[in-house]
Fold:
Amino acid sequence: MPVFDEMNGVAGGGEVRAPYEQLKQWLARTPRELLDTRRSQAELFFRRIGITFAVYGDEAATERLIPFDIIPRIIMKKEWDHVARGLEQRVRAINMFLADLYGKQEILRAGIIPKELIFTNPFYCLEMQGLKVPHDIYCHIAGIDLVRVDEDTFYVLEDNARTPSGVSYMLENREVTMRLFPELYARHRIAPVENYPDALLACLQSVAPRSGRRDPNVAVLTPGQFNSAYYEHSFLADKLGVELVEASDLFVKDEVVYMRTTEGPQRLDVLYRRVDDDFLDPLVFKPDSVLGVPGIFGAYQAGNITLANAVGTGIADDKAVYTYMPEIVKFYTGEEPILHNVPTWRCREPEALAHVLDNLPDLVVKEVNGSGGYGMLVGPHATRGQIEEFRRKLKAHPENFIAQPTLALSTCPTFVASGVAPRHVDLRPFVLSGANGVEIVPGGLTRVALKDGSLVVNSSQGGGTKDTWVLGA
Structure:
């Protein structure tokens, strides 16, 4: 299967592509020792600022650095403009879809999506039915995972509509690259990403429920320091210039949410929550949750606070619902999708299941509610025992799985132990939706599979990250 290399073309055998010309020349004259030194400096920087993530269930290494590759990924402006148009269209459709699901449910009446797929889905929140959110925006922050397969084609691999993470790495990766390679950076006209915190704050303030208030109060709600993404929660609160709060810092009185401060209670207007739905309010969801705020959902229903992202957005990033995204885009926008899905088989359908069972060694099989690279079979890299185990799972509960072909994900030059070598990558741009429209910072988080031949880029599975340069923007 031919692999598109973003620097050298198909299978690395073509001429160097235009955006990589200066980088390739720079790599050719840069000693290996200097790259080793810069990689060590990058690791030291990340350790000093404490940018780590936790691996649940791994007692030997509960806190880790996400490996940072010092060689940037480069995207041309015309490529990015196409991607950005597709992202804006897709996220606009996602918000219309969520507003409809919790409203008139016209897409279900039209038979576009099976009703049972929605009403039996663990991410569908019955308590949100009929609740109107400010500006009909449910997904304020989306992380859309893209993979590239050739010169012109980006596929959407996954929609992250609940609490997409990784933006802190996008920002820190850029800062480290600028520090380590100022001369290389200066030779390129690179679109900035450092304005993301300002854009995020403006987005959150724009959806505050109390109209006319000049400076709505915003806070970031974290489950606490033992959460795998706690560094990012703290990082974002600091960059936004708002308070980082836990459940014990908040209380509800007369359906209004207040934050405890040294100067007395302060009313909150918008809460950027990094706490999952089930743990948000013990009076409505899990009664034993100590991560949530009793009464906060009542305040939400009363229209006295905006939660970002809205409760119930998880239905939009369910992998079974993902398979209907082309139809969802067409239904709500009247347009053909600009960005296409990866071809996908719904194992809940008998004909699709039969095909998947017959071709398991060649397919990628995913749990519809899975994340982080867990609960997944990569057929070409799996053992016979793993394939047979998944065969049993599929036969027992086919509705829990989707399957996709093993794509030849594009590769980018990466500095590994053996030197500079191609490694597979994906891209997670971050899309902000507020009262003033959609904003997308050029670039995003490039994740890289550091193991030779691996297609799994998730940090929990040994993947790393890269700085992402959009040129000429």
About this structure: The domain at 343-406 is CATH 3.30.1490.270 (Dna Ligase; domain 1). The first strand starts at residue 4 and ends at 5. The mean pLDDT is 91. The first helix runs from residue 21 to 29.
